[in-house]
Amino acid sequence: MTVTGIFTALVVGLIIGALARLVLPGKQPIPIWLTIVVGALGAVLGTLLAQNLGVAVTPGIDWIEIVLQIAIAAVGVALVSGLYGRRRRGIRH
User: Structure pTM?
Assistant: First the structure.
């Protein structure tokens, strides 16, 4: 992965974090900055996975890579949401 690829994945991650949050049912008790971070990480991991599967570079729009990025980010947002919400509830006794 090149520097340009990493930068692109991070920028796309901002959007993917928001999309991941939209595809999850219910309200996620995490701040938007954490959603962005998880989305960026999901985008990078999705790009790496697409490269390993050999589907990162295709003619036209890389739909498989985008779907992988959103899926990984959605799982990440769900996990972080559960952990963050549990931690926050524990503090408010």
Answer: 0.73
Give CA–CA dist 35/67, Å, rounded.
17
Q: Radius of gyration of the chain from Cα atoms?
A: 14
Q: Report the SS3 class of residue 44.
A: helix
What proportion of the chain, given as a percentage, has pLDDT over 90? 2
Dihedral (Cα; 16, 19, 23, 24), 10-degree rounding: 70
Q: Which residue has the tokens 């990984």?
A: 72
Q: Give the span between the Cα atoms of 93 and 91, in whole angstroms.
A: 6
Give CA 19 to chain center in angstroms. Answer: 8
Residue with token string 């999850």:
24
CA–CA separation, 89 and 91 (whole Å): 5
SS3 of 38, please? helix
Q: Per-residue pLDDT tens for 49-66? A: 988 998 877 788 888 888
